[in-house]
Every structure is written in C-alpha cells, then in structure tokens.
C-alpha cells in the first residue's frame, strides 16, 4: 500500500512535469519566439514570460535572439579607384527587426543561418564602395584626405536598406576591423621600408662625416689663428726689444768712431772663432814682435 | 541447447555489425553526431560478441570431450588410456583454460586501451566539430527508430535466453543489443529535438555516448584489477572479464539490484546480498532516491553569488523587479520558474589587439627582430614620406606596416546592458577596439606613433574605445589601453635597428673629431704661448744686452779718453787673442816682395782610410 502511494506520487509528479514541458514555453528577455501551428507561423511572442502552446508536433517553437548579433566578414582583397590592391575586413552588428520576415528567410532561425546571406550583401557593398575611393581615402596623415568614417557609412547605408527589405534584419552598425595588403605587396613594402631606412643610414653617415670634417677643420683653423696671433705678438715684442735696445745705443753718439771700432773688433773676434785661417805677415801686431827675431836669426 | 546459443551468438554478432555499419552511414548522411558515435559502440559490441562466440565454441568442444570421456570410463579395458598426462587426455579443456588464462585478459586489456583511445579521440573531435543542420532528418529519424526496434526485440530475446543455465555467453552481446536499441532510439529522438529547434541537442547526446564508452573503459580497468584479487573457488564458474556490467545495467535498469548483488557476491565470495544492510538498501532505495531528488529540487531555491560576481534573475524568462543579485545568498523560486545568470563583474578582463599572444610564453628579452607572439598582424600605418612621394606619382604604396600589441582591460559596469543588449558584448568590444586602433593608425605617421606620440596615443585610444563602447551601450568600463609593443614588422626591423646603429657610429665619429679638435686647439694655444714667451725672452735679453753694451761703452770711452793709443791696441789685441786662438794662422816672415809663396790650405786626407775593413753583409 505504501509502495503504491509512492508510485502514484512519483507518477503524478512526473506526469505534471511532462505536461508542463509539453504545454508551456518560456520566452526570455533576450528572445523573440515564433510559434508555428502545423509549420505555419501563427504567433510572434516578443514579450518575456511564460507562454502556452499545443504540444509538438502540432505547434513548434523557434527561439530567435533579439539582441545585437555581431560577426565579421572575410579579410578580402579589393581594388581602390587609384589601382591599389587592399585587403579589408568589416564587422557588423545586426538585430532581427521583422521576426516574420526573418523566419521566412531563415527557417533554421540561427544567426549562423543568416550570416551567409548577410555576408554576401556586405561583400558586394564593401567592394563597390571601396572601388570608388582612392588609397589615400583609407590611409593618410592628412585628416582632410582621410575618409575612413565616410567609407564605413557608405557601406552601411548601402546594405542597411537591402538587409531590412530582404531579410527583416536591421544592420545597427558597421566598422572596418582590418586593413591590409596582399602578401606579395607586403613583401615589397618591407623591401621599401628597408631601403628607406638604408637611405636614412647613408644620410646619417654622410651628415656625421660632414660634421666630423667641420669640427676638425674648425680646430685646424683655430690652431692656425692662435699661432698666427702668437707670431704677430712675438714679432711686436721683438720690435719693442730692438727699439728699447736702440735707446741704450744713444751713448755711442759720444764717440761714434770708437763705437764703430769696438763693434768691428767684436765682430772680428766672433768671426775668427770658427774654422778661420789667418795669413799674416810679420808687421801685423802682435806678430810684429817676431820681426826683430827674424833679422837676428838671419 | 548449446548449438542454439551459438546460432543466437552469430545472429547477434551479425546484427551488431550491421547496426554499426548502418549507424555510421546514416550518421554521416543525416549529419547526426550521436549516430556516428553510436556506431563506435556497436563496433565494440561486435568485437565482444566475436570473442564470446569463440569462447562458446571452446566450451562446446570441452563439453563434447567430457561426454566422450564419460563414455570411455565405462569401458574398463581402455582405462590405461587415462594414465596419460591430463593435458594430452583433455586437449579441449586445456585449450579453453589457456584461452581463459591468456586470451581473455589480453583481449580485455586491449579493449580497455581501445576504449580510452576512442574516448580521447571522440571528445576532441566533438569539441572541434561544427554543428550542422540535419540532412533529410525524417529519413534519419525513421531508420534509427526501425533499428532501435529490431535491436530491442532481438536484444530482449537474447537477454531472456541468457538467463537460462549454460547460456551466460549470450549475455554480453544481448546487453549490447538492448543498450544499442536505447541509443538508436535516443538518436532518433534527438533528431526530432534538432528539428524542434534544439540545434545542439545532437552534439550533447554524442557527448553522453562518449561518456558511456568512457564508463566502459573505467569499468574494464576496474574489472582487470579486481580479477587479480578475486578469491578463486574451485569448481565455481568464472565471470566473463570482458563483460561490462555497466552496459547490462544501462540496458536493463530494472536488474540493478540483481546485477549489484551478483557482482558483490562474486567479488567477496559470499552472499553479501543476504545481509541486513543490503536488504534495507534494496527496500528503501526508491525513497532515498526520491528524497535526494526532492533535496536537489529544493536546493534550486537558493542561489549563492560569489564575491566579484553579479547575477541576473529571471522569472519565466522575464527579469524580476529587482533582478540584479549582488554577492551573498538569495532565495528564489525553484527551477525552471526562476533562473539565475552569473557574470564576473569585478573581474578585470583582457584581450589583445594586433597580436595573438603565446599562451604561457615568457620571453626574457623581447626584440623587434624576433617574433614574440603566436600570431602577429601587420597593421597599415600612414607614412608622411611615402605620401609626399605619392604626390609625385611614382606609384609606391603610400603606407608602412607596423606590428602592434595593444592589451585592453575592461570591467563590466552595467550588467543589464552587457547581458541584454548584445549577444556577445565582449567580442563586440574587441571588434570596436580593433577598429579604433586601425582607424587611429591609418591617420598617424609611423615615426610619430613609435616615439613621441606613443603616450598620447594610448590615452586617446582609451578615450576613443570608451566612447564607442558607450555609443553601443556595452555596459563596460575600459580601464587600460597599453601600447606596450609597437614596432616595425620582424622582416623590416633589422633596417630600423641599422639606423640606430648608424647614429651610434656617427656619434662615435663626432666624438673622435671633437677629440681631435680639443687636442689641436689646446696644443696650438700652448705653441702660441711658447712663441710669445720666446719673443719676450728675446726682448729681455736684447734690452739687457744693449744696456750692458751701453754701460760697457761708457767705461771704454773713459779708458780711451785716458789713453787712446793704448786702449785701441789693447782692444785690438784682446779681440785677436780671444777670436783667433783656435784659427789656423800662417805668418809670413819674408821681406822679399817679389817672392811668390804657395800655401796649400786643403785639408789632408788620412792615408789609412783605405785600410778600413768593410763588414760582411748579414
């Protein structure tokens, strides 16, 4: 008897749970639910809460996330109006604006199911818009030339209307996530960057050599200036010395003949000191003293 | 009867092989992951059935041998025949014993190893597999349903047969058939669930199936260990070591107590199932399980939010009036009426723009020329030089490339916005941040961003990312944007380093030139001073000498005035004696004026100069 009560209790609970699961459904704050009756959409529930439905397979539920979905397209090569190859990737945020149209377009009801269609739309618009702009519209140090934001807006404007009309999707925002160059061009850019740096190296080396030469030549100039100044000063000093010495020679005026004679004697003395040969006769003093000796011997 | 069991064994084996083949084909056709994993289960079942079948054959041969032996023992004349060695007398028994001793444990070991390998491979495969919408789901549903029905009927028949004496070898394949029926039924149901919108139900079921195989593997390891320590009772039939009790239990859950009791009795060697505790457990288990489930249900009425977390509570999917739960304990209605979603709001979350960092890598030195990230993206950056070149229409790409690594740290500041506005707010923030970095770089000069503009760029980027995040109502606060790594790409980096090296070389040359200048000017200054000093010295000497000469003349004049003749003679003779002391002097004493005298003033050459020996060359 006790066992039966238990079995009945458990059975009732299980049946209650089963019926609860069979006839009710929950709609989250973040969801919109499409209810189909025999595969025909009959209700679109956007308000969160508990709902009632007929059990499967009479009524089926399709839960769509009504929050902003975001995804990125492929990093794809395209061509600018001034013939540059450019790789670009964009991201978009989108929401389900019209659940009925979205359901008709993508019965699987998953964001993944909608993405291929949306991606096709984005690719087409992206390539078309980018083809109308020059490379400098994407990349430039001149803010007036840069049209990055404008390009994003042009792509967004182009796909927004189409996505809403075709799929019931509202594209909320779009941004360029990545810009790049094809691999072969990338390598060439590396080469060019390397060459530029090499040019900088050469320029710096030349500047350095020039500066070194300037420093050395300035030093030579300073040296020569210093020595020339010194020579001039030395010459002046010597002149002063001669002038001052000349003052002392005033005394020679008292007896010029004697002064000249003494100077001659000084000069004679100095001249004879080094490797001189004198041929004198006996009349030359003091050798005149020898004259008497010579006559005595004879 | 035994012959009948072998027939059943063959039928079971073929059915399992067919079910495996059908399951893999159908799984691939209908894109059912669960169906594909179920085929592995059938394959394992077929292997075990094959071994059971071989064992049946051996036991059948042993039984016939025994019958033959019994016949012969009645004939005493042939008694001598049985004096031979036992191995020779009972070859079939010997073969069966060898099979039990060696083949079965080795097979079980290999089976367990295979199961573990399958689990690892299948788990990895499921983790990397993308869920695809089912193909022809109704066909898959119907065929898996039919398979389940066939397997169930055959499995039930075989399992009933296995309960009879001497039919235990049918049991392993019967268990696989019954559980296989359930797995096929679940796969069919799961295809229905996927049809009903539960896209990942099939993926989850495939994981459950992998879990079942994992359980088999774990049980196999335990069986092998227990087999070593099991008490051997002579004459008692041994359990099939490769047979999975888990499979039997899952296939026939109603036999849980029988299976448990048999297992315990077998393992301990006495009737554990007759003890009072076991009897109590058997009677009260249903209540215990019910109470346990009740406790589990009640426990869903309390939620604990951990420190650093916040929770969002929803009643039937609608946020409650006060729906943000802060750290602490909170009461709520039981599941599924109210559900709580947790978020780490205090935790600082980080992502990196521009590079995919190497997990766990620690570089002691980070160089531009050495790749230091798992993946480095080259971002385009404006080049002022190239822009100027472009204006002259040379045709080069007017941009440079830059490797950047910009960590962005953020916290959730508004859980409502973070959870309810975007499906993946974190991912969107990463996209917005990357966009802002790309947008920023295409408008700045490469050298500016790498040098003086770096700090300003960091602050500006943080501001820009925060603004974009606020525009999208992401509910996050950007805490930090760091330009920690911003340099030319690895391939171009050596050229940039060469510029730095050239600068150093130039500095070196300039320092050398400055050294030369310092030396030259200093020496020149000293030389100049030397020349001036020499002139001054000359001046001093010259003036002094003149003064001295003047003084001397004054004295000489006095002497001259006193005796002019003597003074002059004296002066002359003094000068001659001082000056001509060392001069060669020839004094001519001749008085004859007509006499011609020749004097050879040439220096004589030494006669011995020709005798000097010249040293030999070395």
Instruction: State the major sheet of chain A.
Output: 4 strands, antiparallel
Stretches of chain B where pLDDT falls below 50 for ≥5 residues? none
Helix vs. strand class of chain B: alpha+beta
Q: What top-tier CATH class of the largest domain in chain A fits best? A: Alpha Beta
Q: Please indicate the percent range of residues of chain B in DSSP E strands (runs of 2 or more).
A: 5-15%
Topology pattern of chain A, helix = H, strand = E: HEEEEEEEEHHHHEHHEH
Q: What is the residue-averaged pLDDT of chain A?
A: 87
**Termini separation of chain B:** 124 Å
Helices, strands, pairings?
The complex is a heterodimer of chains A (298) and B (618).
Chain A: H1 2-23, E1 24-27, E2 31-37, E3 40-45, E4 49-52, E5 59-65, E6 69-72, E7 76-79, E8 85-96, H2 99-105, H3 111-130, H4 135-138, H5 148-167, E9 169-180, H6 183-248, H7 256-272, E10 277-281, H8 289-297
Antiparallel strand pairs in A: 1-4, 2-3, 2-5, 6-8, 7-8, 8-9
Helix pairs in contact in A: 3-5
Chain B: H1 2-29, H2 33-73, H3 86-89, H4 91-128, H5 137-162, H6 171-195, H7 201-229, H8 245-251, H9 256-268, H10 276-299, E1 302-305, E2 310-315, E3 318-325, E4 328-331, E5 338-343, E6 349-353, E7 355-356, E8 375-376, E9 378-382, H11 384-391, E10 399-412, H12 415-420, H13 425-441, H14 446-450, H15 454-471, E11 476-481, E12 485-487, H16 493-562, H17 564-579, E13 584-588
Antiparallel strand pairs in B: 1-4, 2-3, 2-5, 6-10, 7-8, 9-10, 10-11, 10-12
Helix pairs in contact in B: 1-2, 1-5, 1-6, 2-4, 2-6, 2-7, 4-7, 5-6, 6-7, 6-8, 13-15, 16-17
């Amino acid at each position: 008897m006790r066992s039966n009560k238990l079995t009945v209790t458990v059975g009732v609970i299980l049946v209650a749970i089963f019926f609860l699961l069979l006839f009710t459904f929950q709609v989250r704050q973040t969801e919109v639910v499409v209810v189909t009756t025999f595969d025909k959409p009959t209700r679109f529930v956007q308000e969160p809460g508990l709902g009632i439905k007929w059990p499967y397979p009479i009524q089926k539920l399709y839960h769509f996330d009504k929050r902003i979905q975001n995804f990125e397209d492929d990093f794809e090569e395209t061509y600018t109006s001034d013939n540059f190859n450019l790789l670009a990737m964009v991201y978009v945020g989108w929401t389900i604006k019209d659940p009925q149209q979205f359901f008709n377009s993508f019965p699987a009801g998953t964001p993944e199911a909608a993405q291929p269609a949306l991606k096709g739309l984005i690719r087409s618009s992206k390539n078309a818009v980018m083809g109308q702009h020059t490379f400098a519209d994407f990349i430039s140090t001149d803010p007036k030339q840069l049209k990055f934001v404008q390009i994003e807006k042009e792509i967004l404007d182009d796909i927004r209307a189409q996505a809403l009309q075709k799929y019931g999707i509202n594209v909320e925002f779009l941004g360029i996530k990545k810009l790049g160059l094809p691999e072969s061009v990338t390598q060439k850019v590396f080469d060019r960057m390397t060459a530029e740096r090499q040019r900088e190296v050469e320029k710096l080396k030349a500047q350095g050599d020039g500066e070194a030469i300037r420093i050395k030549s300035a030093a030579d100039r300073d040296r020569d200036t210093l020595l020339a100044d010194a020579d001039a000063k030395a010459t002046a000093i010597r002149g002063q010395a001669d002038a001052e010495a000349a003052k002392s020679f005033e005394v020679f005026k008292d007896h010029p003949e004697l002064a000249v004679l003494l100077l001659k004697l000084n000069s004679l003395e100095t001249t004879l000191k080094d490797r001189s040969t004198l041929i004198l006769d006996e009349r030359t003093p003091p050798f005149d003293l020898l004259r008497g000796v010579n006559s005595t011997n004879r | 009867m035994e012959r009948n069991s072998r027939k059943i064994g063959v039928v079971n084996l073929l059915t399992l092989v067919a079910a495996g083949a059908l399951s893999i084909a159908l799984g691939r056709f209908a894109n059912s992951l669960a169906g594909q994993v179920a085929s592995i289960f059938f394959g394992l079942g077929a292997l075990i059935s094959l071994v059971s079948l071989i064992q049946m054959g051996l036991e059948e041969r042993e039984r016939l041998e025994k019958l033959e032996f019994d016949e012969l023992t009645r004939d005493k004349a042939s008694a001598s025949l049985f004096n031979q060695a036992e191995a020779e007398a009972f070859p079939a028994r010997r073969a069966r014993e060898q099979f039990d001793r060696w083949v079965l444990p080795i097979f079980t070991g290999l089976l367990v190893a295979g199961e573990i390998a399958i689990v690892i491979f299948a788990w990895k495969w499921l983790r990397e597999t993308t869920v695809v919408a089912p193909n022809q789901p109704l066909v898959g549903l119907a065929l898996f349903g039919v398979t389940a029905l066939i397997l169930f009927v055959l499995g039930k028949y075989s399992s009933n047969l296995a309960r009879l004496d001497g039919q235990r070898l049918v049991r392993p394949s019967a268990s696989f058939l019954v559980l296989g029926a359930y797995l096929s039924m679940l796969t069919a149901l799961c295809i229905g669930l996927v049809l009903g919108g539960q896209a990942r139900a099939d993926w989850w079921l495939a994981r459950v199936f992998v879990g079942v195989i994992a359980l088999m593997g774990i049980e196999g390891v335990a069986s092998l260990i227990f087999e070593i320590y099991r008490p051997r009772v002579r004459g008692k039939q041994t359990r099939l070591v490769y047979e999975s009790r888990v499979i039997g239990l899952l296939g026939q859950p109603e036999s849980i107590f029988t299976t448990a009791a048999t297992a315990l009795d077998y393992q301990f060697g006495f009737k554990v199932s007759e003890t009072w505790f076991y009897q109590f457990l058997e009677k009260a288990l249903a209540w215990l399980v019910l109470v346990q489930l009740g406790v589990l249900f009640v426990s869903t009425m309390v939620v604990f939010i951990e420190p650093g977390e916040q929770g969002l509570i929803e009643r039937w999917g609608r946020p409650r009036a006060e729906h943000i739960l802060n750290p602490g304990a909170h009461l709520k209605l039981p599941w599924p009426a109210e559900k709580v979603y947790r978020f780490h709001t205090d935790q600082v979350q980080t992502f990196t723009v521009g590079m995919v960092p190497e997990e766990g890598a620690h570089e002691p030195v980070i160089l531009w020329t050495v790749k230091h990230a798992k993946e480095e993206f080259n971002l385009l950056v404006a080049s002022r030089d190239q822009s100027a070149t472009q204006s002259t229409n040379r045709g080069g790409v007017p941009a440079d490339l830059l490797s950047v690594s910009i960590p962005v740290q953020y916290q959730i500041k508004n859980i409502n916005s973070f959870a309810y506005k975007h499906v993946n707010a974190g991912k969107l923030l990463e996209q917005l941040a990357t966009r802002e970095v790309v947008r920023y770089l295409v408008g700045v000069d490469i050298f500016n961003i790498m040098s003086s503009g770096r700090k300003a760029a960091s602050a500006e980027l943080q501001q820009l990312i925060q603004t974009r995040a606020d525009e999208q109502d992401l509910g996050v606060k950007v805490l930090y944007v760091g330009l920690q790594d911003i340099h030319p790409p690895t391939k171009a980096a050596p050229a940039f380093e060469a510029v730095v090296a050239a600068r150093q070389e130039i500095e070196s040359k300039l320092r050398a030139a400055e050294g030369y200048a310092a030396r030259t000017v200093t020496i020149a200054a000293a030389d100049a001073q030397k020349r001036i000093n020499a002139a001054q010295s000359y001046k001093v000497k010259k003036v002094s000498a003149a003064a001295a000469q003047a003084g001397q003349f004054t004295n000489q004049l006095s002497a001259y005035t006193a005796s002019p003749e003597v003074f002059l003679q004296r002066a002359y003779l003094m000068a001659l004696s001082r000056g001509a002391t060392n001069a060669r002097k020839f004094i001519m004493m001749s008085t004859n004026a007509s006499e011609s005298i020749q004097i050879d003033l040439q220096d004589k050459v030494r006669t011995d100069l020709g005798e000097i020996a010249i040293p030999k060359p070395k």
